[in-house]
Amino acid sequence: MSIGSPLVKNLYPTLLTLAISAGGGAVATALSMPAGWLMGGALAVTAAAMAGLPMRIPNRLRDVVFVLVGMMMGASVAPDSLSLIASWPVSLAALALELVLIISLTGWMLSAVFKLDTGTAYMSSFPGHLSFVMGIASAGVGEPRQIAIIQVIRILMLTIVVPIGAMFLPIDHFAPPVASEFLDVWQLLALAAGCIAVGLVFIRLKVPAGLVLGAMAAATAAKLGGLYTEAMPGPLVVLTFILVGAQIGSRFAGITAREFITAAKGGVVATAMTVGIVTIMAWIVSLLVDMPFGQIWLGLSPGALEGMGALGIALGYDTAFIAAHHVIRLLMLSFAIPAVVVLIRRREKPA
What we know:
Blueprint: H1 6-30, H2 36-50, H3 59-75, H4 88-112, H5 118-125, H6 130-138, H7 144-168, H8 185-204, H9 210-224, H10 234-250, H11 257-288, H12 293-300, H13 305-314, H14 319-348
């Protein structure tokens, strides 16, 4: 097969993206950074994308990433996770209040300080449901490119903030349990088949992040049902972190330096405000429930589900708690986004 063949040309950006993610992850891990394979990969691919290199993760590979993350989250669920549900109402109430504060305050800030139009400001302030937000933006609400940059900056920064906080701040984090037995190839294939099947059902039912949540639901049910007790093989876990890092960083592909600089200032300030609000709410919840602060922070943090779930695994937290809160956040946003869009349209008409 010649180097110039169409197949090689199509594969090259993906292989380059994965290689850069693996290299960045290896460096971060060598420097003993928490979640190094994930954080290092995301940073390296982001830098490469901003430098103009062709960073790309195909949709099919992205779906594989979603299934793998869901499998890992399900396999990492502790048997006593369900006993923590009694403490969830407190954190869920904090989640609802947090969303109101983030949307209203960051939307106002982007409009008043950075002079973005109302549609762009408030569509950029939504902490999650990126595909839904971008779909509405493409229909004429706000400027899609600026919204995309601000939203991607939020996802990237939140992915980076947690490991850095684990290194320098007094935040509880735990090494994942050391497993002595691992799933064999046939068990992995059977589990993957079940995860894909349930994920497709979730997609058909229009469940947010259907593949991730469907895979997690299947893996969790199988584990709690006693169908397996073994852990995911270490190399597969590392590969999943590399893929997630590549996926996060590749979202910056195609964004010019000028576009990035124009939107980055507002995006960084908006993300900093979001982190501040999340941190305050997580601290208040930590005073009321017996749960690690870092775990609460990840549950309330409006990052991508696959990224936050992978970080939860890397830092040894309860993935059931984290996933449940992200699902409910997305459901809340499913009602909030259309409502805010209606208010934006009403405000724009007099103007």
